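In response to the reviewer comment on reproducibility (Comment 2.3), we provide here a single inverse folding case reported in full, input and output, so that an independent group could reproduce the run without further information from us. The structure tokens appear first.
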């Protein structure tokens, strides 16, 4: 069974960091790109608690601090 629900960026970051740690850099960069796409395609220009793969309308609280993890992803991708 596969998860087909909301996506939380802080959990995705843990997967990203694990991929980098075990030298799966290509997969890590693909994941980072998808994370960035989820954030950047939002017309409201806000960070959300979670993202839906099925709906562009976010019905969750915005500006959650844990979504600032995207800054860490960008630093990790572009400073290695």
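Designed residues, in position order:
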């Amino acid at each position: 069974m596969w998860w087909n629900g909301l996506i939380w960026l802080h959990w995705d970051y843990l997967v990203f960091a694990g991929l980098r740690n075990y030298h799966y850099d290509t997969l890590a960069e693909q994941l980072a790109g998808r994370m960035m796409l989820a954030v950047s395609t939002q017309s409201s220009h806000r960070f959300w608690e979670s993202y839906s793969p099925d709906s562009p309308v976010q019905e969750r609280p915005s500006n959650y601090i844990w979504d600032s993890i995207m800054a860490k992803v960008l630093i990790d991708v572009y400073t290695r």
